[in-house]
Design a protein that fits this description.
Helix content: under 10%
Distance between the termini: 40 Å
Low-confidence stretches: none
Radius of gyration: 13 Å
Strand content: over 45%
Mean pLDDT: 96
Largest sheet: 7 strands, mixed
Number of strands: 11
Structural class: mainly beta
Order of helices and strands: EEEEEEEEEEE
Shape: globular
Length: about 120
C-alpha cells in the first residue's frame, strides 16, 4: 500500500504563488504518471494538471500559463507550481496516481486565495 501526502498549501493574496508537493509513503513509488485535482466547496472535483511518463502535460484551461506540473526524481515528489493565483483557485488540492493498477489519492491540502 502506498499513501500520498500533499503539502505546501496555505493562505496567499491574489497574484501570489504557492508550490504544492506530493510525497509517497513508499520510496519505491515513482511519480511517472500523476495528476493534481482540486475541489472547491459546493463544486465537483476537477482535474487541474497531469504529467505522464513521457513528459507530456495537460492543464485545465483555467490554469494554463499560470500553473506548472513537475516531478523531482531526487526527492521523489510530484509538484505543482501555482503563480498569479486568483480567488477562483481557492480549493482543496489533491494529488492522484496509481499503484499496481489501483488509484490512490492524497488527503488534500487547502489553498485559499484572498482578494
Amino acid at each position: 500500500q502506498v499513501h500520498l501526502v500533499e503539502s505546501g498549501g496555505g493562505l496567499v493574496q491574489a497574484g501570489g504563488s504557492l508550490r504544492l508537493s506530493c510525497a509517497a509513503s513508499r520510496g519505491t513509488f515513482s511519480f511517472n504518471n500523476f495528476d493534481w485535482y482540486r475541489q472547491a466547496p459546493g463544486k465537483q472535483r476537477e482535474l487541474v494538471a497531469s504529467l505522464n511518463s513521457t513528459g507530456s502535460t495537460f492543464y485545465a484551461d483555467s490554469v494554463k500559463g499560470r500553473f506548472s506540473i513537475s516531478r523531482d526524481r531526487a526527492k521523489n515528489t510530484g509538484n505543482l507550481q501555482m503563480n498569479s493565483l486568483k480567488s477562483d483557485d481557492s480549493a482543496v488540492y489533491y494529488c492522484r496516481s496509481k499503484f499496481l493498477g489501483t488509484e490512490i489519492w492524497g488527503q488534500g491540502t487547502q489553498v485559499t486565495v484572498s482578494s
